[in-house]
Amino acid sequence: MFGAKTTSLLLGKMNVFSCFHPMTRQLQLRRGFRVAVIGAAGGIGQPLSLLLMKDQRIKELRLHDVQNVKGVAADLSHVSSPVSVQAMQGPDQIEKAVECCDVVVITAGLARKPGMTREQLFEVNATIVCGAVSAIAKKSPEAMIVIVTNPVNSIVPMAAEVLKRNNTYDPKRLFGVTTLDCVRAERFIGEFLNISPTMVKIPVIGGHAGTTILPIMSQCKPPMKAGRECIASIIKRVQTGGEEIIQAKEGKGSATLSMAFSANRFVDVLFRGLSGEKTPIEPAYVESSVTDACFFATPLSFGPKGIATNHGLPRLDKSEEDAMKVAVKELQRSIQLGVDFVKK
């Protein structure tokens, strides 16, 4: 009916106008992100990568680790998901893995073993994360950097120093994931109140280790109507949740599945912000001026450039104020540990 030239012209117009079709635009927004998982062959990296494969807002998922990551990528490539998955293996491939990414999630490093202090863990994991952050600074300076590797309280300030040295530091784009503390608080309170954890809203502030983890029970919704001892026991369980899992796994593992679940929840909120959506409030360990600790987790909202609003401290009762003073002193020591590592 039409000549070859006319047909070509019509198809060209259709392609141009399809860019403006609402459905096309919606798909572009939903499937536009490049994400890298550093440490993808590990205990957290594997389940996190599987969860990310389900997210159709992701265009490309890049998996990096020092070994065994090709098998993980091959396995995930059999999943019926439109997400493209690629494997990059070894130190010489890390820059390629993070290049031009929107979000980089760092899970690489050694898991804490029974009897190991977080300072000992830091000595092992600091060098690993330094290498990853240096690669991000060089190849993807605008990326959102999501740090899962422990000890978060020291690793995140260390990462900030590395970025500063590379003149690429933006405090709105660097996050330590503390969502697992929220997830635990929601679960344990839900069990006590005999309701779904999804119905529990509780701010958890501070850091991501021991007494630096501060579930603000006075602001729990629905309200926690329980005695002091009961509330204290729930707080203690949230603060020592990592040890509980290590013991349950008989020293052969740590919190991997629950951490992957939590990291995925945090990344989901980041995606919403990057897409220009109104985001749920989610805490993270970030540079902060709300206390005397220059890094501190508080409730945050997110936007296209990272942190949109730091909502600061929730209202605290007297016991929570006292607990925060203890947490701040401990955080200051942990922060200095991370800063000194880079300076030395």
UniProtKB/TrEMBL annotation:
<dbReference type="InterPro" id="IPR001557">
    <property type="entry name" value="L-lactate/malate_DH"/>
</dbReference>
<feature type="domain" description="Lactate/malate dehydrogenase C-terminal">
    <location>
        <begin position="178"/>
        <end position="341"/>
    </location>
</feature>
<dbReference type="InterPro" id="IPR001252">
    <property type="entry name" value="Malate_DH_AS"/>
</dbReference>
<comment type="similarity">
    <text>Belongs to the LDH/MDH superfamily. MDH type 1 family.</text>
</comment>
<comment type="subunit">
    <text>Homodimer.</text>
</comment>
<feature type="binding site">
    <location>
        <begin position="39"/>
        <end position="45"/>
    </location>
    <ligand>
        <name>NAD(+)</name>
    </ligand>
</feature>
<dbReference type="Pfam" id="PF02866">
    <property type="entry name" value="Ldh_1_C"/>
</dbReference>
<dbReference type="GO" id="GO:0006108">
    <property type="term" value="P:malate metabolic process"/>
</dbReference>
<feature type="binding site">
    <location>
        <position position="65"/>
    </location>
    <ligand>
        <name>NAD(+)</name>
    </ligand>
</feature>
<dbReference type="InterPro" id="IPR015955">
    <property type="entry name" value="Lactate_DH/Glyco_Ohase_4_C"/>
</dbReference>
<feature type="binding site">
    <location>
        <position position="112"/>
    </location>
    <ligand>
        <name>substrate</name>
    </ligand>
</feature>
<feature type="binding site">
    <location>
        <position position="259"/>
    </location>
    <ligand>
        <name>NAD(+)</name>
    </ligand>
</feature>
<keyword id="KW-0816">Tricarboxylic acid cycle</keyword>
<protein>
    <recommendedName>
        <fullName>Malate dehydrogenase</fullName>
        <ecNumber>1.1.1.37</ecNumber>
    </recommendedName>
</protein>
<feature type="binding site">
    <location>
        <position position="125"/>
    </location>
    <ligand>
        <name>NAD(+)</name>
    </ligand>
</feature>
<feature type="binding site">
    <location>
        <position position="184"/>
    </location>
    <ligand>
        <name>substrate</name>
    </ligand>
</feature>
<keyword id="KW-0560">Oxidoreductase</keyword>
<feature type="binding site">
    <location>
        <position position="118"/>
    </location>
    <ligand>
        <name>substrate</name>
    </ligand>
</feature>
<dbReference type="InterPro" id="IPR036291">
    <property type="entry name" value="NAD(P)-bd_dom_sf"/>
</dbReference>
<dbReference type="GO" id="GO:0005739">
    <property type="term" value="C:mitochondrion"/>
</dbReference>
<keyword id="KW-0520">NAD</keyword>
<dbReference type="InterPro" id="IPR001236">
    <property type="entry name" value="Lactate/malate_DH_N"/>
</dbReference>
<dbReference type="GO" id="GO:0030060">
    <property type="term" value="F:L-malate dehydrogenase (NAD+) activity"/>
</dbReference>
<feature type="binding site">
    <location>
        <begin position="148"/>
        <end position="150"/>
    </location>
    <ligand>
        <name>NAD(+)</name>
    </ligand>
</feature>
<feature type="domain" description="Lactate/malate dehydrogenase N-terminal">
    <location>
        <begin position="34"/>
        <end position="176"/>
    </location>
</feature>
<feature type="active site" description="Proton acceptor">
    <location>
        <position position="208"/>
    </location>
</feature>
<dbReference type="InterPro" id="IPR010097">
    <property type="entry name" value="Malate_DH_type1"/>
</dbReference>
<dbReference type="Pfam" id="PF00056">
    <property type="entry name" value="Ldh_1_N"/>
</dbReference>
<dbReference type="InterPro" id="IPR022383">
    <property type="entry name" value="Lactate/malate_DH_C"/>
</dbReference>
<dbReference type="GO" id="GO:0006099">
    <property type="term" value="P:tricarboxylic acid cycle"/>
</dbReference>
<feature type="binding site">
    <location>
        <position position="150"/>
    </location>
    <ligand>
        <name>substrate</name>
    </ligand>
</feature>
